[in-house]
Specification:
211 residues; alpha+beta; Glutaredoxin; Glutathione S-transferase Yfyf (Class Pi), Chain A, domain 2; binds glutathione
Length: 211
C-alpha cells in the first residue's frame, strides 16, 4: 500500500496516524506532477489528497481510506469494541469533517481571504463546545482509554489551532474548553502525536518556502 499526498494535510495525516496506531508505516509521497496532473486525475478523479493505492486499487477520501486500512491492515483496532463508544468515535470524526474543517480552512486561507477569518473564529467556539459535549470526563483519549480514529482525525486538525494561535488567537478557543485542551496537551506529548505534529510543521515550512 502507498499513500499519495503531503503530510501537512490533516486528511493525509489522519490516515498516516491511523495506520501507525495499527503498526503500519505507510509510504507517503506526492504524485509526480502534483494532484491535478492528468496521470493523478486518472488514478484519482477527485484530484485531492490523500489517495491510497493498494495494488491496482486506488481509493480517495481520508475517512474511507482509514476504514479500509482498519479492515485490511490487521493489528490493533482503531475503533472501540463497544457499539456506543464506536458511535462516539464516528460522531467526533463526522463533526470534525462537517463543522470543524470548513472553519479551519477559512483560517488556512486567511492570508488571501482575511474577510473569512472573523466569522470562522466566531463559529469555531460553539463547534468546539459541541464536540466537547460528546466527550466524557473519563475520556483520556478523544474517546475512551485508547487511541482511536477520533484521535487520528482530530490531532492533525488541532495542529492548526497552535499554528493560528498567534495570528488569530485560536488558543483562547481551547482555553474555553479545558477538558478538550487537556486532551490536546496529552495528544501533543504522545509519541504518535508529537511525531505527526513535527511532520506537519515540516510540511508547513516547506509550503511557506514554496517547495
Ligand atoms: N474530503 C476529503 C478532503 C481532501 C482535501 O480536501 N484535501 C486537500 C488537501 S488538505 C486537497 O487535496 N485540496 C486540493 C483541492 O481541493 O484542489 C478527504 O477527507 O480526503
Amino acid at each position: 500500500m502507498k499513500l499519495y499526498g503531503g503530510l501537512l494535510s490533516p486528511f493525509v495525516m489522519r490516515v498516516v496516524l491511523a495506520a501507525r496506531a495499527k503498526g503500519i508505516e505507510l509510504p507517503v509521497e506526492m504524485p509526480e506532477g502534483g494532484i491535478k496532473s492528468d496521470a493523478f486525475l486518472r488514478l484519482n478523479p477527485m484530484g485531492k489528497m490523500p489517495c491510497l493505492v493498494d495494488g491496482d486499487f486506488a481509493l480517495p477520501e481520508s475517512s474511507v481510506i482509514l476504514d479500509y486500512v482498519e479492515e485490511t491492515g490487521g493489528g490493533t483496532s482503531i475503533y472501540p469494541a463497544d457499539a456506543q463508544e464506536r458511535a462516539r468515535v464516528r460522531l467526533l470524526c463526522r463533526m470534525a469533517d462537517i463543522y470543524l474543517v470548513p472553519e479551519v480552512t477559512h483560517l488556512f486561507r486567511g492570508r488571501d481571504n482575511p474577510e473569512g477569518v472573523p466569522g470562522a473564529i466566531e463559529r469555531l467556539g460553539p463547534v468546539l463546545a459541541k464536540l466537547e459535549s460528546f466527550r466524557r470526563d473519563s475520556d483520556v483519549f478523544a474517546v475512551g482509554d485508547a487511541f482511536t480514529a477520533a484521535d487520528a482525525t482530530l490531532i492533525p486538525i488541532f495542529y492548526f489551532f497552535d499554528v493560528f494561535a498567534r495570528p488569530y488567537g485560536t488558543d483562547k478557543l481551547l482555553d474555553a474548553q479545558p477538558r478538550l485542551k487537556a486532551w490536546w496537551e496529552r495528544a501533543k506529548a504522545s509519541e504518535l502525536g508529537s511525531r505527526a505534529l513535527a511532520e506537519q510543521a515540516a510540511g508547513l515550512r516547506a509550503m511557506m518556502a514554496g517547495n
